[in-house]
Specification:
Structural class: mainly alpha
Helix content: 55-70%
Shape: globular
CATH class of the largest domain: Mainly Alpha
CATH superfamily of the largest domain: lambda repressor-like DNA-binding domains
Distance between the termini: 35 Å
Strand content: 5-15%
Largest sheet: 2 strands, antiparallel
CATH topology of the largest domain: 434 Repressor (Amino-terminal Domain)
Order of helices and strands: HHHHHHEE
Number of helices: 6
Number of domains: 2
């Protein structure tokens, strides 16, 4: 599957009205898709967390990108769960969005 988006029966689960139901069906019937979906859970959850924190502060992706020292597109791919995030980027995001970053027993203040 890699970076390519898979489509089933012409439906893109991210945009169609019946996307949630269709996604459920795919997860139940396609073992490869389900493994990939589960393998990327942490990236999706991190992306949603960053998105929520950004919206709480009323920032645009561009404004957050400027604070972090990256591009708006990079913020987009992080929020969408499409990429792994390096620790340095995570530390800058924590600082920009003012949340504590805890790794093991070490806390990096946000």
């Amino acid at each position: 599957m890699g970076n390519e988006k898979r489509r089933y029966d012409g439906i893109d689960p991210e945009v169609e009205d019946d996307g949630q139901e269709h996604l459920r069906q795919i997860l139940e019937t396609d073992d490869e898709f389900r493994r990939e979906w589960e393998a990327n859970r942490a990236k999706r959850e991190l992306g949603m967390f960053i998105l929520e924190k950004r919206l709480e502060q009323g920032l645009s992706q561009r404004e957050l990108a400027e604070r972090v020292g990256t591009s708006q597109n990079r913020i987009y791919v992080i929020e969408s769960g499409e990429t792994d995030v390096r620790l340095g980027t995570l530390r800058r995001l924590a600082g920009a969005l003012e949340f504590p970053l805890v790794v093991g027993d070490k806390t990096f203040a946000g």
